[in-house]
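Q: I'm building a small set of examples for a reading group on sequence design. Run inverse folding on the following structure and report the sequence directly after it, with nothing in between.
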């Protein structure tokens, strides 16, 4: 009995010591890295959702999802690669997406407002020029470029993943390079549906999915698309997507149709990684060219990938992304 009592006493001391050593951890309720941020907009206050994975004071990577209108969830594959490299990253559902508030007001779906939203999120998360890396994928790449053009002094590094710097050029690439790859009869049917504006016609996506999406969005058979991708895409805010992008990934027809910052790229001086893929909806040569136009650019080419090369060419995507971040962090970045 005395032995048991002594052992229990030792365990109590250990528990007390452990608790004392983690006073900061218990100083407030822990939420698993989740932080809901209140943002100001022209239509009032709304909440956006974020979640931190990892803890590195020197490297904090904020992820901007695509769509527009998808969710952070398709970035979940990052959890298999970045934590082991001690790279902290932050999920973030933009307003109208996923776990964040949805104002259900198309007047809110404009690029300038989203830029100011990102800046408010940066401030709330205490991200600074000493640790703040911004990765934008697809539409998120548009948002990241536009943010950097206004607020690059707050950034340590910029990653533009699978996005061109010109929507007119994106549309041209879709029509002149990708469209001719269709069987002519199938393309004619797609064109007829688009001409009629009958985008709710199930035939539209039935044709685009096997003949375009599985070739240029994610190069797996539809039944093998990863669960996080399906989960994210199933929650797409269609109002946001159609307002800004248009009805599909086959070109662009929303309010971003004339967006073009090619001439402004030389203004970006921070280390910048442009990621392109051979089978992307975006022209890989354009994305390579982007890396030569910014002051301190590098190009990462995913030879086996498509628009979602973070899934269908992980063996090129993640080593290149990790190397860029570590090179910048170590002061060893060069073009």
């Amino acid at each position: 009995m005395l032995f048991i009592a002594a052992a229990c006493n030792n365990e109590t001391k250990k528990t007390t010591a452990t608790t004392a050593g983690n006073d900061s951890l218990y100083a407030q309720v822990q939420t698993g890295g989740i932080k809901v941020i209140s943002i100001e907009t022209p239509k009032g206050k709304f909440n956006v959702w974020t979640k931190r994975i990892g803890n590195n004071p020197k490297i904090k990577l904020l992820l901007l999802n695509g769509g527009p209108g998808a969710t952070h969830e398709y970035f979940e594959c990052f959890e298999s690669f970045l934590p082991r490299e001690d790279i902290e990253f932050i999920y973030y559902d933009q307003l109208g997406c996923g776990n964040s508030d949805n104002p259900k007001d198309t007047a809110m779906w404009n690029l300038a407002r989203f830029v100011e939203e990102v800046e408010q999120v940066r401030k709330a998360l205490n991200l600074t020029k000493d640790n703040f890396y911004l990765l934008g994928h697809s539409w998120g790449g548009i948002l990241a470029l536009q943010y950097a053009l206004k607020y690059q002094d707050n950034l340590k590094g910029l990653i533009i993943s699978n996005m061109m710097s010109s929507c007119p050029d994106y549309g041209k690439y879709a029509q002149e390079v990708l469209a001719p790859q269709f069987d002519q009869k199938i393309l004619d049917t797609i064109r007829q549906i688009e001409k009629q504006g009958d985008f709710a016609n199930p035939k539209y996506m039935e044709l685009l999915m096997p003949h375009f999406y599985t070739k240029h969005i994610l190069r797996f058979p539809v039944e093998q698309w990863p669960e996080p991708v399906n989960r994210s895409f199933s929650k797409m805010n269609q109002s946001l997507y159609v307002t800004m992008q248009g009805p599909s990934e086959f070109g662009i027809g929303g309010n971003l149709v004339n967006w073009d910052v090619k001439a402004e790229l030389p203004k970006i001086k921070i280390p910048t990684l442009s990621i392109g893929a051979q089978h992307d909806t975006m022209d890989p040569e354009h994305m390579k060219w982007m890396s030569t136009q910014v002051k301190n650019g590098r190009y990462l080419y995913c030879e086996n990938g498509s628009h979602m090369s973070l899934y269908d060419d992980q063996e090129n995507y993640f080593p290149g992304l990790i190397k860029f971040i570590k090179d910048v962090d170590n002061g060893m970045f060069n073009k």
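Residues 1-8 have pLDDT under 50 and may be disordered.
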